[in-house]
Predict the 3D structure of the following.
Amino acid sequence: MPGTRHLTLLVAVLVGLALVALAVQCLVLLLSTAPVAHGAWRVGVSAVVVTGVWFLLNGPLEGPTVLVFSSNHGLTVGDLAGVPPLLLGGVVAALALPAPA
């Protein structure tokens, strides 16, 4: 199907844009002077989940291979784009959840 490639590219771009928006929101939460609010865990978990979706759907936007693991597997520039939102989301979720009693 000729339209499938365009649809796959569109989905990857939309997931990438959501990833950027969540990363910016996590960064704003971390840079604000107030402590991270308890409800912010949703933003952190969302960033982590969307990063997982990004790793699955970034095929059309992967770019060159940075690190080769085997002939069929490697780390690409597109994969590296998911690392900051993953880390920021994890930090926000960790700071927003209360410590166990």
Strands lie at 65-68, 74-76. Residues 2-96 form one domain.
